[in-house]
Amino acid sequence: MLPRSVDAVVIGSGPNGLVSAIALADAGWDVLVLEAADSFGGAVRSTENDGWISDRFSSNYPLGVASPVLRALELEKFGLKWAHAPLPLVHLLDEDGSSVAVHPDPEDTAKSIGVDDPGDGDAWLRMYQQYVTIREPLLKSLLTSWPPVLPGIKLARKLGSAGELLRFARFMAMPMHRMGQELFTGPRGPAVLAGNALHADSPLSGSVSGTMGWLLAMLAQDVGFPVATGGSSALSGALVRRAERAGALLVSSTPVTGIDVSAGRVTGVRAASGETVAVSRAVIADTSAPALYRGLLSGATIPAGLKRDLDEQFEWDYPTVKLNFRLSGPIPWKSHEARSAGVVHLGGTADDLVHLSADLDTGRLPSQPFLLIGQTTKSDPTRSPAGTEAVWAYSHLPRGIADDESAGKLAGRMERAIERYAPGFTDLIVDRDLQRPSALESGNAALGFGAVGGGTMQLHQQLVFRPTIGLGSPRTFVSGLYLGSSAIHPGGGVHGACGHLAARTALRDASVLGPLTRTFPAAALRHLQR
Description:
By secondary structure, the chain is an alpha/beta fold. The chain has 19 helices and 18 strands.
């Protein structure tokens, strides 16, 4: 039986929802987390069967290690352990076995990138040194506040002159393809940027795609691409224990079917069981934007502008197809570097990936797909029995194409691609498990059409345009109701920032300064969404 009333309800127990619950409970609020699935964690969950551990959604967590939000929670005190492969990342350039690697030591990475031109290695070291210089204010600007006024001022001070600030702003706005051309002469540096940029869905010739490629490449050099020891559920489990320590009550197998609103303010939530929980302060929805506005608020009067923007302009990111393999032994890559990597990018040069990116944005199923491959046993030997390998691979369908038949075709091409780069791979397959977009969405309703980012990460749906035209904040048109998922700034990734921002906003609005902090934003939002 659910409590009859609480200060706050958090809908969903993904990492953002759990971060929200922790922040509110730490502040002394009575917090209830309601999760529809039978286990907590959202898209941070793993399963174990016969000694094999499979990460069902997300798996490698560079942002999880680097995020100031998650670092502040000290999850290691709640059982979390990170595991690293000998090499964080290897990008395969060609079927002949040529590759480029990110090593733990930046000097070794520079040697790998500079094989064709030593100057490219020097460029990598200069780029990484600038990242190290601005790392803390940059990550705080991206992940801890919106708008990022104070962290932004600190970032500007680190950069120095106004000229350097403008140069950095231009650098962040560049397409990945142009960024690679300006930084490097040979093919290896651009390939590293391109492969990392394709973790998101911004076209590689489009503005700001370089930001994602650069940031993930720098994180690979800085903190690696670690996994959680024992499976991704170990990360969500640590968050759950931290939330319970703070005093939050978490209830699974309890879908929320509606949010009650009276006189423009949230008053409660309704569960599938028929129970209603009254809410005195806030509801935070760790759901997709369509699920909140079209589903949970279906009984409310949605502002006409918001409804129009959702119907006509909201865009999902690329649908994902994921293959999970049980292998009788390690993948026999032609590239020796790939044999010790935690993450392998399979896809060719930066130019090759620009063409592939164009296919994804024009409805063409790539004949040679880009694969992101996680060799989890390389990072964490507990993932599979001795001598075997637990491996997953994912790729993307073209935007707007998520049917099972297309997913099956892509899966076949993915498996054949690995075989070309590692002859004998298919002979090692003990078992394979295909997660089509439909399976990903049925496993986690927030992954609409198998999209894992909460909506496109392109510039037209970032900042004040996320998830639609507004203020870029967690606030909604309902007082006391906040969107706290990857549907809001800063978007996808396991970093906890979206949940942190939602809880921070709720706490501020409920404080004695609340009438001042919420009046103008609420009025502006009503004006923009009318």
